[in-house]
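A reminder before we start the practical. When you read a complex entry, don't treat the lines as separate problems. The point of joint prediction is that each chain is placed relative to the others, so the output describes one connected object in space. Small molecules and nucleic acid strands, if listed, are placed in the same frame. In the example below there are two entries. Take a minute to note the order of the lines before looking further.
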Amino acid sequence: MAEAASVAAECLAGCRARGARSVLGQVVLPGEELLLPEQEDAEGPGGAGERPLSLNAGARSRVRVICGPGLRRCGDRLLVTKCGRLRHKEPGGGGGGVYWVDSQQKRYVPVKGDHVIGIVTAKSGDIFKVDVGGSEPASLSYLSFEGATKRNRPNVQVGDLIYGQFVVANKDMEPEMVCIDSCGRANGMGVIGQDGLLFKVTLGLIRKLLAPDCEIIQEVGKLYPLEIVFGMNGRIWVKAKTIQQTLILANILEACEHMTSDQRKQIFSRLAES
Amino acid sequence: MKETPLSNCERRFLLRAIEERKRLDGRQTYDYRNIRISFGTDYGCCIVELGKTRVLGQVSCELVAPKLNRATEGILFFNLELSQMAAPAFEPGRYLNLFLKIYLFKIHFQVWQIRVDLHLLNHDGNIIDAASIAAVVALCHFRRPDVSVQGDEVTLYTPEERDPVPLSIHHMPICVSFAFFQQGTYLLVDPNEREERVMDGLLVIAMNKHREICTIQSSGGIMLLKDQVLRCSKIAGVKVAEITELIQKALENDQKVRKEGGKFGFAESIANQRITAFKMEKATIDTSDVEEKAEEIIAEAEPPSEVVSKPVLWTPGTAQIGEGVENSWGDLEDSEKEDDDEGGSDEAILLDSIKMDTGIEVSDIGSQDSEEEEMIILEPDKNPKKIRTQTTSVKQEKAPNKKPVKRRKKKRAAN
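Here is the predicted structure of the whole assembly.
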C-alpha cells in the first residue's frame, strides 16, 4: 500500500504520464495515463506532457498495440481504469503486443461468448429469467436447449442451475443466453445435475483454473473422481461421491486463491495420504 | 438490488450436510467462528469480526435534560445501520433499534445520553451476535468526560483538564444465536449466511457470564421443546463465558498499549500488506474419516470376476483361449461412466452392422474409444449366416446361432 500510495502521489503531483514499459509489473491506479513505447522517446525527461511539434510526425513507426481489460485509449495514451498490476504480452508476429491490468474482481459483467452458471429465478411464458450475478437477470428461451421443440419443452424448474453462454451481452440491453452452440448441439451446456455444491470465487481465480494445463485441476483430479463446472461469472459447481469430499474440494478451490504453489502441493500430498 | 436466489441444489446440499453434521467451513455444531476485536484511536470505537461478518461500533455521549417521567435515569440509545456495503440486498434507510440492556447512571439535573451506533460492514451471517459483542465492547471501551457537582453547580471537564472516566457497567450481556433446521431436529450455533438462508427458525439468547438470561427471542415460528430451550441456554452459558473472557483480554491489551505509549488504532491492527498479498484464515478441514470411507468402499466392492482361461473348442481344428470369450461384463449402463468433465465427449455410440450373405461386412465405426474387430470362422461349404447386430454404448446383443459357425465380436475398449 505504501508503494502504491507514493506512486500515486508522484503521479498526481507531477501530472506526468509515465511510460508503460517502466511500469510493467507494478501497481497502477485508475486515472493514470501511460505512454506507449514509441511516444516515450519523443517526451524526454523534461517533457511537461506536450508532444513537441515535428514536421515528420508521420514517419514515426505505427505499432498496433491492443488494449486489454482495465485500460482504455485516451487520445494517443492508455488510460488506466482499474487498479491492479500492469501486464504486457509480446506479440506473436507483428503488432505491439497486448497491455492489460490484472485486477481482483468479484462482481461479474456479462460478456458475449462467456460460459456462465446461472440460477433460474422465474419462468414467464417462453422465457426463463436466469440470475448470472450481473446487474440484470439474463433471459433464456426454452427453445435454446438441444432437442427442444414447441412440443418438447425442456424440464427446467425455478431454482435449477443452468450452464450456458451469452449471445447478447452489452451495457444497453438485457443479456441473453443460450444452451446450445452454433451447430445446435449442447456441448456440455444445459441444466446441471441435482446434487453437488455451488460456491462463489473471484473472477481471477476462475480464469487461472481454466487456463490450459492448470496444475490445480490436474492435482485435484488425482484425489477423487469428481465433476466440476466453472462459470466465468465466478461460480463453481462441484460434485463428488460423498458430502465430505465435496466440502473438501470446495474449500480447496476457495483457498487456492490465497496459497502459493508450495503450500498447495503440501496440502494435496497430505490429502492424498489420508 | 435483489439478492442472489438460492438454487435448489445448494439448499438440498446444505440440508443434507447438516443432517450428516457437517458444516461448510468445517466447524462443529457448537463452534463459533473466530472472533477478532480491534480498537480505534478514539475511546469507544471498535470493530468486531465474527468470521467474515464485520460490525463497527462507536459510542458518543452528551448531556441532556432527562425525560420527565424518568428523571433519574440516563438514556441509552442503540442504532444499527444496515447499509448496502454489508450486502447488496439491504436497502438504505432501514435500521433496527435494539434495546437489550438498560444501565442506570448517576443522578444529575442533567443526564447522560449515551448513543451507540453500530454499522454493519459485511454480512456473512449472524449479525445479532456480532452486533451485541461490538456494542458491549464499545461501551466498555468508552470514556466519558469527568463531571463534578458542587451544590447546584455542575462542572464538565474537558479531556485535557481531567482524564475521562469509563462508564460503570454492571454486566456484559452477549447474544448467542441458534439456527434450527428440519422443524427443530437439527441445531447449529453461529449460522453462516448460507445456513441462515435454509434455516427454519432462529433462537437468540442473551446471557451474561453470571448465567443470568437477559433476553430470549425466537423467530421463524418453529415449535421448540422445553428441553431444547434448556439445552440451548446451557450451551449459551458456556459460549458467553468464553466470549466475555476474550473481550476482557482484548480490553486489557488495548489499555496496556495505550498506557505504555505504543501505537494503537485501526491502522495498527491491519498488518502491513501490499495490494497483491493475500491472506486467508486457515480453515481446518476434517479429512480424518476419508481413509475409513475409502477402505469401506474397497471392502464392500465385489471382487473382479474371474477370467475364464480354458480353451474353447469351436470346430475341429479351431479353438480359442483367453480374451474374446463370452462377454463376462454383462450390461454396462451409462451411469457408470464417471470422470465426466464438462468438456463433453460423445456418449451415445450407435453402431449398425449389417452383414451380407457374401460375408462382406459394412460396419460403421463411429466411436473413438472402442474398437471392434470382426472374427469370422469360415467353414467349408457353408455360408456365413446373415446376422444383424446393433450396439448402443457398450451393450451387446448376440443373435441366436443355428449353425455352428460362430461369430465373435472382439470388443476392446481403449482407455
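Discuss with your neighbour: Chain B has a mean pLDDT of 70. What might explain this?
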